[in-house]
Design goal:
This protein has a domain of about 300 residues: Outer membrane efflux proteins (OEP). The chain is about 60% helix and about 15% strand. It has a four-stranded antiparallel beta sheet, with no helix packed on it. The protein has a two-stranded parallel ribbon with strand order 1-6. Helix 6 runs antiparallel to helix 7 and helix 6 packs antiparallel against helix 11. The radius of gyration is 42 Å and the shape is elongated.
Length: about 500
Amino acid sequence: MPSLLTPAPCRYPAARARESACPAPRHVASARTSLRAVLLVAGTLLAASPACLAGEAPAESPAPRVLTLEDSIAIALENNRSIQTAIDRLDRAVGRVGEARAAGRLQLSAQATLTRNDQETSFSLPGSNGGPAQEATLTPLYSRTGRLSVTQPIDISGALRASRNIADLGVVAAHLDVERTQEQTVLDVKSAFYQVLRAQAALEVAQANVASLEEHLRQAEAFQRAGVAARFDVLRAETQVANARQNVIAARNAVELAKATLNNVMGIDVSTPLTVRAEEEVEVVLPEYAPSLEAAYAQRAEVKQARVNVEMSQRGVSLAKATGRPTLGLNWQGNVTADGGAFSPRAFQWNASAVISYPILEGGLTKARVTQARADVEAAEVTEQQVREGVALEVKQAILSMEESAERMEAAAKNVEQAQEALRLAKVRYREGVSTPLEVTDAQAVLTQAETNLVNARYDYLLARARYQRAVGQESVATGTAAPANAEGAAP
């Protein structure tokens, strides 16, 4: 955008030719010189960092940490927020177990009371044998009493037992939820880790493409200097190099974004510098569906959790039925009175009782509760079936993805070899003067696409393998690896 102190350029060619002969007014030129001086001083001050102004050397950035897949999984299992939340829910479930058990244990309570009346009430009693009258206190000014109560519920209805069973199953479900969250976190880490590797491999392909095109550009410039190539060939090669460098910039940014995502999954600062270490080789393994599905039903935390939820709902039916049964409680109570007055000769009294209660008319409350509990059982059973069907779909999708990506890897590897040979021949033909530059650039584009396809197929397979391990429930929380059930391997 032009400065406000700079004269607007002439719009028309004829006026543009006279522009140089029409110098700017003197006050405009003076203001322009002053503005440049101010900007120069401001730029010098802004360029000086606080560390330089203080005479200190700038701090060096920390060296990036080298991480393997196992390292990344270990960090995520320690720092991931979802896992911490699941552990908090487990602690809450353990607390509910203690609450349910406390309801059936011996209860002891004590109470002390100090009462001040508005006035003391007393009366006189005639003395015996004509003696003097005696004053008797009916209500003292201050009254002190104490009470000790002991209660023991007797679970004749089964309600306390059902509550304890539900709480115990809640702990089991919470444990399975922690396991499920850990397994999902392992899969998320693997996905983010492989995405970093994919982005790095794509960056290497883009950089190799730039290097090859720069070599072709140098060859075209040499031919132009020798007079055997036109200027157009050099311009075309320069344009292709510039476009390839744009791809390198985008690929480098994709690497940084992938690393930030991995840091986020691991639960650390997204700006933490890191370097990931790739696997040396990828061994292609193609599992079978039937044994994999059987393993998934036996090992997946979601399937186990759905079964536990069904059992909890069934215990809920027992609890609902127990609300319509009689209850029994044993109670012992002791009372201490320090200032009882004339008609309370005993300072300590106690009593014991057994209380049984039976609801006779409740307006159909128990029946309604049982109906709700049975509906919960049916809903839990339907949910369990949905979970099993979803697990079966995940296993099938993972196996199909593994098979597809394995075939793509094999085809892409052969395509890369053919494209490399085609590019070599194209360069030889160009150097000998029997082909055009277009043949070289087309061969280079084909090679770049083939290498990109190989990179995508490789990491699509690794991601599909990770999803398969998650689908069958064979993730190891310690290492994040698993051996596929009854798998048949084939070398790529």
